[in-house]
Amino acid sequence: MKRLLLIALCLALSTPALAGRCRLERQAFAPAEDLEAIDVELIGQAKKRIDFAAYVLTDLRIVKALDDAAARGVRIRLYRDGADVHMPKALAEVYDSLAARPNVEIRYKGEPAPLMHLKAYSVDGKFMRDGAGNFSHSGLTRQDNSLIVLRCRAAVKRFKRAFEDMWRR
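RE: above sequence
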């Protein structure tokens, strides 16, 4: 039975309707690979829009990359589970710069909405990034965590729908 299911799955994924539409662009694992550097690179590719969902966002390089993207005119929507009460001064300064930009909207999960635990974003509607690690220096560089980047219209659309649902809460 398992063999039949596997064969059916392989045939379904090899159909012309799906061929070429979805691609695993990148897969990485920390601590052997620097997920922080990968995220900075991906955010740096943005030209129009980033929808960013972050349970934790305390990584200075990531916040700086978002601020740099906003300075280039990229529209950024950042959805957070809650505010970081105690930020180091350098992080607070960059976060304040990001929040002050006219093309940046930041929203926090409303109560009694469930815990927002995503660590994902989409760039220009072209690809989405998802992963296990929080957007913290340790989560992206020292802990055992993963990151995948999908260039897949269906995956980006599903993320957009989920993001819009959270955004409206």
